[in-house]
Design a protein that fits this description.
Elements: H1 3-15, H2 18-25, H3 29-43, E1 48-50, E2 55-57, H4 59-85, E3 91-97, H5 103-116, E4 120-126, H6 129-137, E5 143-147, E6 155-171, E7 191-195, H7 196-199, H8 203-212, E8 220-225, H9 228-236, E9 241-245, E10 257-261, E11 267-275, H10 282-294
Parallel strand pairs: 3-4, 3-5, 7-8, 7-9
Antiparallel strand pairs: 1-2, 5-11, 6-9, 6-10, 6-11
Helix pairs in contact: 1-2, 1-4, 5-10
Length: 295
Amino acid sequence: MDVRVLRYFLTVAREGSMTGAANYLHVTQPTLSRQLKDLEHELGKKLFIRSSHSIHLTDEGMLLKQRAEEIVNMVDKLEAEFRSMEETISGDVYIGCGETDAMKQIARAVRDLQLRYPNIRYHLYSGNEDEVTERLDKGLLDFGVLIQPADLSKYNYIKIPAMDIWGVVMRDDSPLAVKDTIRAADLINVPLICSRQAMKQTYFKNEFADWFGEDFDKLNVVTTYNLAYNAAIMVEEGIGYAITLDKIVNTSSDSNLCFRPLEPRLESGLNMVWKKHQVFSAAADMFLKEIQAKF
């Protein structure tokens, strides 16, 4: 299977028409059509549903699109790494992370390294633990920043010198906003917006359930989220109270939201992880050395 043909396929999927894709790729429409028919023949599956004005992906086409994007991204990353070997020290570093104020620690390392090696480029991918580790395991990321507790058995890791504080984001006019801290009893019978990671059958859920105690199963979870930005929008619209980390939602004076920490206090540490026996590019290796020196 030719990577060039996969790029053709992805362009057609994105443009939604053979004509638009051919114009974008600067190839003739018959050439493009023949390449894609050959691809369908090679895979033994129909990838497109063709109409007079547009093209839609079949279920098999959707699966190929997902896998082709991963393959093309990996090839681009590999080519960039080999190019960087010929230069002083340059290239790309791919970092996956959840929403956390501790990213300031990573940003400071990037800033200091950038002063010495301005040709290194950094690419951030935001997602929860499952999304970050999946891309890390596939080789699409060099490093991941995981909120504790997390399964670190497959990885080497460095502890980041920071702690995240859990609490509740709510509207300023909410009844609970008058409190300095929020206890478990305060959250019974109110609509809650919770992280999907916190609600999964994981060690963290056990920790979260321990904090709530016997009332955990009584919680009224009306919405789950994986990005706190979207959770904050739901809070603003009066959907409920968001259980989240401090400093990742705007609760400044120009916002109508506020944050109240949990009581007893619930904190999470963080680790930067990478695959065991990982072979790094020159840029990623230099970044790791900078992190090790700082942390």
